[in-house]
Specification:
Elements (H helix, E strand, L loop, with lengths): L5 E3 L5 E3 L3 E2 L7 H12 L4 E3 L7 H11 L7 E6 L6 H15 L4 E6 L9 H13 L3 E7 L3 H10 L6 E5 L7 H9 L3 E5 L12 H10 L3 H11 L3 E2 L6 H8 L8 H8 L18
Parallel strand pairs: 3-4, 4-5, 5-6, 6-7, 7-8, 8-9, 9-10
Antiparallel strand pairs: 1-2
Helix pairs in contact: 1-2, 2-3, 3-4, 7-8
Bound molecules: NADP nicotinamide-adenine-dinucleotide phosphate.
The site of NADP nicotinamide-adenine-dinucleotide phosphate has 27 residues, from helix 9.
Length: about 280
């Protein structure tokens, strides 16, 4: 079984540094099979969200796996239409109900939008859930430094995690520096750039050949060696196993440096400053 490293969050909770993302995994059989395959391959972190519409399947696979609940780290997220205090508390209950679980390990504010800036109110609700010991850790997603600064003006609890789009073509140095200063762990979403151009980049393919690894494994290893938490999505059993098979080799400092210099500030997802979906 693969030995996945853990990171310690600022509230002393430990979290696997690598896990499965399930955005766009269909509710029912598809997501259940993906989670089950991942758990069999050694994954112990699953990242879902209310808006993904697949919390029930995630929960079913976790229960059916027979693995003790406390050995699996489950993340879900509060959607943008639920930032009012009472609505946010109810949304947490609804996520637990769909998952069939009685607590989450990590609950995130999914986006700092809509632009009515209700997220500090949503954060108060997450702080209440945390104070009541109904969730082990709380955090945010898609927050830039200015969103975090605003949140920190009124926050009593510092977010443990900020989950953001991050891959070799979008390295997010400013947000990473800000998070490091505030002991907030950065979690990379779309870490493979959604199987985009990064996997064909000659720097990546050349390093892959040198290590007898795939381009995806090189990119995921780069996240790990940068201290980032990483949650590639796959519903394909062989790619699920391929993605976790990254703990038996090291990228050299020179290889890390070559990938570090691939940054083009190139997003494939929405920019939190302009996203306006509800
Ligand atoms: N907080 C947010 O706003 C937010 C936004 C986006 C994503 N996320 C989270 O981050 C997770 C990952 O991000 P993502 O789904 O956007 O993108 P990703 O993990 O970078 O890429 C997923 C895509 O890559 C393919 N793939 C996976 N492993 C591969 C491999 N070894 N070789 C070639 N192709 C491979 C997958 O196809 P197959 O399934 O066919 O393998 C899928 O099309 C999501 O599932 C979600 O949990 C969060």
């Amino acid at each position: 079984m693969t030995d996945i490293p853990h990171v310690k969050l600022n509230n002393d909770v430990t979290m696997p540094q690598f896990g499965l993302g399930v955005w766009q995994a269909e509710e029912g059989g598809e997501v259940e099979r993906a989670v089950m395959t991942a758990l069999e391959a050694g994954y112990r972190l699953i990242d879902t969200a209310a808006i993904y519409g697949n919390e029930a399947g995630v929960g079913k696979a976790i229960r059916d796996s027979g693995i003790p609940r406390e050995e699996i780290f489950v993340t879900s997220k509060l959607w943008n239409d639920s930032h009012d205090y009472d609505t946010a508390l109810a949304a947490y209950d609804a996520s637990l109900e769909r998952l069939g679980l009685d607590y989450l390990d990590l609950y995130l504010i999914h986006w700092p939008v809509p632009a009515d800036n209700k997220y500090p109110e949503a954060w108060r609700a997450l702080e209440k859930l945390y104070a009541d010991k109904r969730v082990r850790a709380i955090g945010v997603s898609n927050f830039k430094p200015h969103h975090l600064e605003k949140l920190l003006q009124t926050a009593e609890v510092i977010p443990t995690v900020n989950q953001i789009e991050l891959h070799p073509k979008l390295q997010q140095r400013e947000t990473r520096d800000f998070c490091a200063q505030h002991e907030i762990k950065v979690e990379s979403y779309s870490p493979l750039m959604r199987a985009g151009e990064v996997l064909q980049d000659p720097v990546i393919t050349e390093i892959a050949e040198a290590h007898h690894k795939t381009p995806a494994q090189i990119v995921l290893r780069w996240h790990i060696q940068n201290g980032l938490i990483v949650i590639p999505k796959s519903t394909n059993p062989s790619r699920i196993r391929e993605n976790v098979d990254i703990f038996d080799f090291h990228l050299t400092d020179a290889e890390m440096e070559r990938i570090n210099s691939m940054d083009e500030d190139k997003r494939i997802g929405s920019d939190p400053d302009t996203a306006n979906f509800k």
